[in-house]
Amino acid sequence: MPARNHNQWKANPPLKGGEWIDSRIYSDPEIYEQELEDIFKKVWVPICHESELPDPYDFRTATIAREPVVVARGPDNVVRAFLNVCPHRGMMIERRPSGSFEEAAPSGNPKRMTCMFHGWQYDMKGNCVYISREKEGYQDRLCKEDTGLRRLRCEVNFGGFIWVSLDDKVMSLEDWCGDAFKCIRKPLEAEPLEIFHYHKAVIGTNYKLWHDTNSEFYHDFMHYHNRVTGFNDAYFARENTAFKHGHVNVGSFEVQYDEYEGFESRAELSFPGLPPNQWYMVDLFPGMNFNLRGSALRCDIVTPLGPDKVMIEFRGFGLKSDTPEERRTRIDHHNSIWGPFGRNLHEDLIGVAGQGSAMLPGSENRRILHGRHENNLIHDEVGMRHYYDEWGKWMNRLPSDPSQPYMPAEAAE
Amino acid sequence: MSWRRICAADSVALNSLKKFEVDGIPVVVANYGDGFRVFPPICPHMEEPLEESGLIEGKVLTCTKHLWQWNLATCQMEGTETEKLMHFYDVKQEGDDLLAFIKSEHIYEFDEEDEMDDDDFFNS
Ligand code: FES
Ligand code: FES
Ligand SMILES: [Fe+2]
CB contact, 8 Å: A168 with chain B? Predict the structure, then answer.
C-alpha cells in the first residue's frame, strides 16, 4: 500500500466492528471525566497489599477517581477503608503515603486519625471521637455522632490484596473477578505473601494503553528477552481467555530462562502449586494486572491522572516464609526483568509513552487496530477486543465511534 | 509484695514528670513540690503520653492536649474541661527510694463503639 493522503488516512480500515477503535477514547478530556465517574467510582480497585500494613494502626493512603482514600488496620486486626476527607471543612486528613497512627500526630492523640486543621479526631472504625470545643461551639445542635468518616467497601482477597470500592452497592468482589483469578488462586493463597518491591512511574500516556500492553503479547517482538526465552511452539500455543466484566487471562507455558545469558531457571522457587517456570497473567478491567512468573509475582495498579497521564504503581511479592537467601533470589528474578532497570519494563514504557505522545488531547483522532485473529492464541488481539466491548457498555459509547451509543460489535458492522 | 521500688526520689526534678517501667508496668512519677505522685503514663482523656503532654504548675497537672487538669495535692479534678479522675497509685518514700503500691497495672476504659454488620452498614 502506498502512502495515503489525508482523506485516505482518515477512512475506516477494511475490518469488522470491534476490530478497531477510535483514538479519541485515549485523549478526549470529556471521555476521561466520564471514565472516572462511570467506571472508576463503580468498580473494585486494589489499593495495596496487607503486608504493607502488618501491625494494628498501620495505614496506607491512595486515590480513586480523585477521591482520597485511607486504609487502616484496626486494633482488632481488621482492615477498613475510609474517604480520607474531614467531615468538618473538607481537609484531606492524612497526607502521608503510609505510616502508623499508633503515635499521636502533633495536634492529635495516639491511635486516632487526626485532621491537623482544627484537631478533629477519628478512631480506626471511622467514629468521630473528638471535636475541639464541641459543647461551646455547637451546644446540642451537632455532636460526634453526626460527624463520622465515610466508610468504604473494603475486602482483603486473592492473596492478601486490599480492595476498595467507592460504590456502597458494588457487587461482591468474588463476583467481580473471582473467575479471572482462578488460574493463580492456589499459588497466591497457599501461604501469606509479602511485598518486597515498590516503585511508581508517572507516564505521559492514557491508562488504557498501559493495560493494552499487558493484554497483548505480540509486542514480544519488542522484548528481546522474551523472544530468546519464549518463542517456541508452546509459547505460540498460549491461550487468551475472556471472563465476564472485561477481565482476561493469558495462559501459561514453560519459559526457558536459561536460554538468556546470565539468567537462570526459576524452578526451585516456584510459587506453591505452580509447575516450574510457568507464567500466568490476570488482566483486570479497568486496568490492574497480576503477573506471576514462576518465582515472583508482579502487580500493576493504574491511577489515571488525566487523559494523557497515568500513575502506575509496580509491586513485587514473594512468600512471607522466604529465607533471606530465597528472598534475595526472588528479588533478583523480579528485578532482572521487571525492575526499573530490568530487561523488559522500560521497553513497555517506551511503547506506551510513544503512543501517548502521538495521541495528545487535541490531536486528530485515528484508528487503532485490534483485528488480529489467531484462534485466541497468544498473538490474537481478543484480550483488547473483550476489554473495549466492556468499556463500551460501562460508558455507553461505541469504542470505534465514541459519539455513538454502545452496541455489540456484530451490530456495529 | 505490691510495694515496688520505682526510682531514686531525687531522680525526678521539681515540677517535672518522668516515665519508668516497673516489672513491665509503665508509670509516670510527678514531683509537685510537697511530694510525689505515681500514675499510669497516659491521659485518661485520649491516651496522650503524659510525660510529653503533662505540665505541672502550682501543684496542678495539666495535659496540654485538651487542658484536662488534676490537683496533685488533693488528687481531685481541676478546671472546666476535665471529665475523668486520674488513677493514682499509693506512694511512699523509704530513705532515698520512691515506692508505689501497684497490685496490677491500672488500665483506663475508653469507650469503643460497636460496629454494624457490614451488609447492614452498607445497605441501610
Ligand atoms: S477541616 Fe478537619 S478539623 Fe477542620
Ligand atoms: S488527651 Fe489529655 S486532655 Fe485530652
Ligand atoms: Fe511487555
Answer: yes
- State pTM to two decimals: 0.93
Closest ligand 2 atom to Cα of B67:
3
- Res. A170: pLDDT tops 70: yes
Alpha helices in A279-371 (DSSP H): 324-338, 345-357
Q: Calculate ∠ Cα A122-A123-A124, nearest 5°.
A: 125
Average confidence (pLDDT) over A188-193? 98
For residue A327, give the 3-state DSSP assignment: helix
Q: What is the mean pLDDT of residues A191-219?
A: 96
Closest CA to A78 of A150, A126, A44, A144: A126
Q: Does A197 touch chain B (CB under 8 A)?
A: no
pLDDT score of A155 more than 80: yes
What is the percentage of chain A residues whose pLDDT exceeds 90?
A: 88
Chain B nearest-CA residue for A105:
B48
Q: How far is B48 from chain A (nearest CA, A)?
A: 6
Q: Tell me if chain A has a CB within 8 Å of the CB of B122.
A: yes
Measured between beta carbons, the chain B residues lying within 8 angstroms of A109 are 43, 45-48, 65
Mutate to test the pocket of ligand 2, among B46, B78, B81, B108 (most ligand atoms within 8 A of CB): B46
Candidates 1.10.340.30, 1.10.3720.10, 2.102.10.10, 2.120.10.30; CATH matching B2-105: 2.102.10.10
Q: Which helix (H) or strand (E) holds A383?
A: helix A382-395
The domains of chain B are located at 2-105
Query: Under an 8 A CB cutoff, do B46 and A109 touch?
Result: yes
Interhelix angle for A382-395 vs A207-215, to 10°?
Answer: 150
Q: What is the mean pLDDT of residues A179-188?
A: 97
Nearest CA to ligand 1 atom 4: A118
Residues 6+ apart with CB under 8 A from A38: A394, A395
Q: Does A218 or A357 have the greater pLDDT score?
A: A357
pLDDT tens, residue by residue, A100-124: 999 998 889 999 999 999 999 999 9
The whole-number pLDDT of residue A412 equals 66
Shortest CA distance from B114: residue in chain A: A125
Residues 67-106 of B with CB under 8 A from A: none
Residues of chain B with pLDDT under 70: 1, 113, 115
Structural domains present in chain A: 45-155 (2.102.10.10), 179-412 (3.90.380.10)
C-alpha triplet A236, A239, A241: angle, nearest 5°: 160
* Residues at CB less than 6 angstroms from ligand 1: A 86, 88-89, 91, 115, 117-118, 120
CA-nearest residue, atom 1 of ligand 2: B46
Q: What distance in angstroms lies between residue A133's CA and the mean position of ligand 2's atoms? A: 13
Residue A221 has pLDDT above 90, yes or no: no
Per the prediction, chain A carries an average pLDDT of 95
Output the CA torsion A13→A14→A18→A23 (10° steps): 0
